[in-house]
Write a structure and sequence with these properties.
Order of helices and strands: HEHEEHEHEHEEHEEEHEEHEHHH
Helix content: 25-40%
Radius of gyration: 21 Å
Mean pLDDT: 89
Largest sheet: 7 strands, parallel
Shape: globular
Number of strands: 13
Structural class: alpha/beta
Number of helices: 11
């Protein structure tokens, strides 16, 4: 008898996405709903996503618990998952660095251990896509004008937020060496801006008065949130292993960014930032940890050529356009609140 041919539904992907209650997860699920190449989505988070479609199955798993790896492996096997999208990372530093480490580093370990365990069955995971940030390069006085993906990653002193991302990437590198048949992709996103974007810099730019480090005016890249989601979707559609910088075209001095937004700049000496900023951060009255100050002093601009050539990523917004769009959306929301 002739073999039964697989239908489009049978061959479509079954994806497991971590961190689905946040911007990247919910945005990606929205795009996958209309993609016939995706048949089912496992939404893995401690909170149910705000908007779920017909393809989504919510699977409550806490990545910080010791049993998370076993729970994930069982889900991957039972649902015959072939693609993992790991997005369970914080968008900005938090005061509870222990929890942040458990979520981002230990959580990544649980995800990758579960993928490795799922490889033993007939249905194997074929692809792992992981979110990261260009902040993993660190902000250093000896950085080149444009940072390439092959630059060795070094931990940033007293900056656990960035160090967690570096450790997560190192885990994926080790996993990729042990499991070369799994297509592993890392997207190092530039600083995100947009109506839904969160992070240290979006929070800074949302303020009317912005503290800076006296004597420094580094160049910045900003990536519009729409472009970030486009890149994430491309990484799922394409079969390219490796690390990719996802950044917008162009750079702007931080002083220009502040002028575009009509912000009042308050230059503060570095030594004063260290003392007063550390005190305010410790008492949770400041969103900027002192360890972030180097990112307001030194260059950390990434080269996006590789993503353009191999992924076909072409950002719709330049850095300048992303800034203007962010500022425009912020002003509109403030105007609406004042009208109420």
């Amino acid at each position: 008898m002739p073999k039964k041919q697989a239908s489009d539904g049978d061959s479509a992907q079954v994806m497991a996405i971590t961190g689905t209650s946040e911007f990247f997860g919910s945005g990606l699920m929205g795009r996958l709903e209309s993609d016939p190449r995706c048949r089912k989505i496992l939404a893995i988070d401690v909170r149910e996503p705000p908007n779920t479609g017909r393809k989504v199955t919510f699977c409550p798993v806490d990545l910080t618990t010791p049993e998370a790896g076993h729970e994930l492996a069982a889900l991957f096997r039972s649902h015959r998952v072939d693609t993992i999208v790991h997005l369970a990372f914080l968008s900005h530093p938090i005061h509870d660095t222990t929890y942040a480490h458990e979520l981002q580093v230990i959580g990544t370990m649980h995800v990758l251990n579960a993928v490795a365990a799922a490889q033993r069955g007939k249905q194997r995971v074929k692809k792992v896509v992981m979110l990261s940030s260009t902040m993993v390069y660190g902000a250093r006085p000896d950085n080149p004008n444009f940072l390439l993906e092959d630059r060795p990653l070094k931990k940033t002193p007293r900056c656990p937020f960035v160090n967690d991302l570096v450790e997560a990437e190192q885990q994926l590198q080790q996993f990729a060496k042990k499991h070369p048949k799994v297509n592993t992709t890392v997207l190092r996103m530039g600083c995100l801006l947009g109506p839904q974007a969160d992070g240290v810099l979006p929070r800074l730019l949302a303020c009317s008065t912005v503290p800076t480090v006296m004597g420094y005016d580094p160049l910045f890249q900003f990536l519009h949130e729409t472009d970030a989601l486009d890149a994430l979707k491309l990484a799922l559609d394409k079969e390219h292993k490796g690390v990719f910088n996802i950044v917008a075209d162009g750079v702007l001095p931080f002083s220009t960014v502040l002028r575009l937004g009509g912000k009042v700049c308050v230059p503060i000496p570095h030594f004063l930032w260290e003392k007063v900023g550390g005190f305010l951060w410790a008492f949770q009255t400041l969103d900027i940890p002192p360890s972030f100050l180097d990112f307001l002093r030194y260059l950390w601009v990434a080269d996006g050529t590789k993503a353009k050539r191999r992924l076909g990523f072409s950002p719709r917004y330049t850095t300048r356009e992303a800034v203007l769009e962010f500022l425009r959306s912020g002003r509109l929301s403030q105007a609406e609140e004042s009208d109420d």
